[in-house]
Amino acid sequence: MTAHENVDSSRAARARWLLHPFDDAPAWNRLLQRINPVWSLNEIRARLVRRVEEDDETISLWLQANGRWPGHAAGQHVALGVEIDGVMRQRVFTLSTPERPDGRLRITLRRQPGGGVTDWLHRNARTGQIVTLSRPSGNFVLPQPWPKRLLMLAGGSGLTPMMAMLGQLADENYDGDIVLVQLCRDARKRLFAGELDQLQAKLPGLQIHVHASSQSGRLCASALAALVPELAGRHCLLCGPSAWMAEVGRLYKRRGLSDRLQRERFGAPRPESAAGDDQHITASRSRQMFTQKPGASLLESAEAAGLTPAYGCRAGLCRTCLCKKQRGTVRNLITGLRSEQPDEWVQLCVSVAESDLELSL
User: For 191-198, which contacts have Cβ atoms below 8 Å and span 24 or more sequence positions?
Assistant: First the structure.
């Protein structure tokens, strides 16, 4: 290093020392949050202002975000973070309301077995609690311009993005024709029954068909075609259980209507479970080896071996589980694309190994 470079380096070091802690965002955040827990220089933080028990298995949480919230499009989702046993955990939830004048946001979540963020919120969420939010994301939104004829197919909690979309359409005086097919177990306990009645009063063109499996059995795709005979003339928004969505997708493909079908998913595609050679994975940071069995994703395989990779949605949406693959071949279950080059990033929750791997875990 020359004398001139040494002087420049010393000046830079003095400048950093003089600026610190003024350029220390985490330190400022800690200070601001002592004054008001939702204040932050760079985080979207929100206060839980209301909890609603929708039914025995489903709750809605109303949140008031800080000024860093950028707004969202109806149908988008966020990663919500809470601290559980001293560890920050995230889970992706769809926002079930459109943009509102009061700025409040709502997530609606059905209890999930096996613990995790959803189960923790069901047991522990109380007004006044503070959570973190990601920026909203997702492409499951109303197409522009709005079609004059819409079909919304909602199975179970797949209704949540539809509620946000219907709310936006009602707020903006949509005068088109909408058919909503709502799948549930029991018509007497269907989600958002009262709110849907209110939306129907604001949207004269909204028809609601409720299919309760406990009374009518499972709604197959062929029955759907009979229920809504004008499928070809409607833009379809589909969200629900993966198997049912796949069946509807095949129906649209057979009829040459795939371009009219817009889908959202809450879970990752399942890997094939056919017998084959196990793949051996080396976790380089933890110095551990584990095996990927047929039918399991890389995330599930790592967890079965006792590792704890970060994850959020488990559906390939939030990218929390991104991990560097140092060598080997990985296939993405959503896109079908293969990662064969070293030092590429892969999403553990929607990826499977097609060779022995080394991962930065």
Answer: 191/54, 191/55, 191/58, 191/108, 191/156, 191/157, 191/159, 192/54, 192/159, 192/163, 195/163, 196/166
